[in-house]
Design a protein that fits this description.
The structure holds two protein chains of two kinds.
Chain A lengths: L1 H8 L3 E10 L6 E11 L4 E5 L6 H9 L6 E6 L2 E2 L5 H7 L3 E4 L11 H12 L4 H14 L15 H13 L5 E5 L7 H18 L2 E5 L12 E6 L2 E5 L2 H5 L4 H10 L1 H10 L1
Parallel strand pairs in A: 3-8, 3-9, 6-7, 7-8
Antiparallel strand pairs in A: 1-2, 1-4, 4-5, 9-10
Helix pairs in contact in A: 4-5, 4-6
Chain B lengths: L3 E2 L10 H31 L6 H12 L3 H25 L6 H39 L2 H7 L4 H39 L4 H11 L2 H27 L10 H31 L1
Helix pairs in contact in B: 1-6, 2-6, 3-4, 3-6, 4-6, 4-7, 4-8, 4-9, 6-8, 8-9
The chains are: A alpha/beta, B mainly alpha.
């Protein structure tokens, strides 16, 4: 019981002086330069930054799909970098992940894709699995599409199926990797509204990696900006706008032009 | 590139070829190590629950039943060619009666296991390598790991099991059809007596020869499935194959070439050790 109380007080995810580089000997590039930050439990954190700044790498480090060169990554107080394969597998049951390309299994139907984690990770009967899958399909407005294959779905539907699959095991933390890539602005808006609704309903910790700025900031309780391997943490768009750091100002001007203009006219 | 490049110690120009050689050696060692671990994880996956019976049947249908036609025609033509060439050579010495023995021993100990493995590597091995490679680059394998589903048990082990069941059975079929092909060419076309063809075969083929053929087919099956799926699984870690679709196509070619060469090398080694 005491452990549960302690856990609930801990941040969901913590990065402590994490360094990550890629490439072969003689051609190595440092992507993350000893970054430290924490992600609060039950809130939505957006990780933003330009292309190649290590946003997706950050998510893969959290999941233990990549190992850092040095530093600690704590999930519920457990250091991911020190876990063995079996321990890592059990830690991953806390996560739901929506991949950039949705990563749906091409040879499985929508229904089978969503049912897969329940079939593989639980001992639920086929009847219960069917009930749960059909409920999720209806929550995400996918009823009637259960027999289709991923190749027959639009980009927005693939994302919703990916989200449905990610939520099947009631994860404590849901990671979204560039969830609106390739979607039109209307669909992007719909997907963000859906994320907001699901997060409020289920209360999970959401981490969204995106360069879809400023739209994604509307969802954020915390914003983490990655730039040249370093990290800046903000709790509001205003904080970013008012930052004195030149590269933050440059980033904000380029990505949040409209907000800047409206702020300027307001003064 | 926006990231900072790590400073590596300067290597004098005279030492660069050695550095490259050492680098290549280390890469080879790493690759062998990860392929070794891959095989161990796949073998362990065979015994993990839940058992994927449906997937095993699907793979048996694809690898086994799907290869029957190609194996049938390869075996028939090989047997007929062996029958004709064997007759041509033996006729010179008046030893046509040995045709059944020559055809059956060649097929059971050599051609059956080798040609079956090469055909399955070309047909099913390439397809499995491409499938796993595409699943890797489209993050489907990452998705499995994130769902805490063991990708070895879920994806690779049913393929391994199906190949280990299918290839020996296909080899047996190859032997039977090949012997029938030799019979057609030697007995029906060239006029060798049917009795001497089958009698020669029964007198010369021993249990040891059959056992050698069976052992070879199991070893070849393991080699081809290991290399095919392993190359696909590590598509993003293999040097010099590029990225995306290009990497999958290059790795698929590499898998077929590597498994074919391995089959031929192991054929010699097994023959030398077990004959």
């Amino acid at each position: 019981m005491a452990a549960e109380i302690n856990n609930s007080e801990l941040p969901a995810i913590e990065f402590d002086e994490v360094v990550k580089s890629f490439g072969e000997r003689g051609r190595r590039h440092i992507v993350l330069h000893g970054i430290s930050f924490s992600i609060p439990r039950g809130k939505t954190t957006v990780i933003a930054g330009g292309s190649g700044q290590g946003k997706s790498v950050t998510l893969k480090l959290v999941l233990g799909l990549l190992r850092p060169d040095s530093g600690r990554i704590l999930v519920d107080g457990q250091d991911v970098t020190q876990l063995r394969r079996g321990e890592l597998r059990s830690l991953r049951t806390k996560f739901g992940v929506l991949f950039q390309g949705s990563a749906l299994f091409d040879s499985l139907s929508v229904y089978e894709n969503i049912a897969l984690p329940l079939r593989e990770r639980t001992k639920l009967t086929d009847q219960v699995i069917e009930q749960r899958v059909m409920t999720t399909l209806s929550q995400l407005e996918l009823t009637g599409h259960e027999n289709k294959f991923p190749a027959q779905l639009s980009g927005g539907m693939k994302k919703r199926v990916g989200l449905a699959r990610a939520l099947q095991l009631n994860p404590e933390i849901v990671l979204f990797d560039e969830p609106t890539t390739g979607l039109d602005p209307v669909m992007t808006q719909e997907i963000y509204q859906l994320f907001e609704r699901m997060q409020k309903e289920l209360g999970y910790t959401a981490v969204i990696v995106s360069h879809d700025i400023p739209k994604v900031f509307d969802l954020a309780d915390q914003i983490i900006l990655l730039n040249r391997g370093e990290v800046d943490v903000f709790t509001s768009v205003e904080q970013i706008r008012d930052s004195k750091k030149p590269y933050i100002r440059e980033f904000a001007e380029m990505t949040m032009g409209e907000l800047f203009e409206s702020a300027g006219s307001g003064c | 590139m926006v990231q900072e490049q790590l400073q590596e110690p300067d290597i004098p120009s005279w030492a660069k070829p050695f550095a490259r050689l050492g680098d290549q050696f280390l890469y080879l060692l790493t690759d062998m190590g990860r392929m070794g671990l891959f095989l161990l994880s796949t073998l362990a996956g065979v015994f993990r629950r839940p058992f994927r019976g449906g997937e095993l049947l699907k793979q048996l249908r694809f690898i086994g039943a799907g290869s029957v036609t190609v194996i049938f025609f390869t075996a028939l033509s090989s047997g007929m060619v062996l029958g004709l060439q064997g007759y041509y050579s033996l006729h010179k010495f008046g030893a046509e009666g040995m045709l059944g023995s020559a055809v059956s021993l060649t097929l059971i100990m050599e051609l059956g296991p080798i040609l079956t493995a090469l055909m399955v590597a070309g047909r099913a091995g390439s397809a499995m390598c491409a499938e796993i490679g595409i699943m890797r680059i489209s993050e489907q394998i990452d998705a499995l790991e994130c769902m805490a589903v063991d990708p070895f048990r879920y994806l690779i082990s049913p393929k391994l099991l199906a190949t280990m069941i299918s290839v020996p059975l296909l080899t047996a079929m190859f032997d039977v059809v090949g012997i029938f092909g030799g019979y057609l060419a030697g007995v029906k076309l060239m006029g060798v007596s049917s009795g001497s063809y089958f009698n020669g075969m029964m007198q010369s083929v021993t249990n040891h020869d059959i056992r050698l053929g069976i052992i070879k087919s199991f070893v070849f099956a393991l080699l081809l499935i290991w290399i095919s799926t392993g190359r696909g699984y590590f598509v993003q870690q293999i040097r010099g194959v590029g990225f995306g679709a290009e990497s999958v196509s290059k790795v698929t070619t590499q898998a077929v070439v590597m498994s074919s060469i391995s089959v031929l090398i192991f054929d010699y080694l097994l023959t030398a050790v077990l004959l």
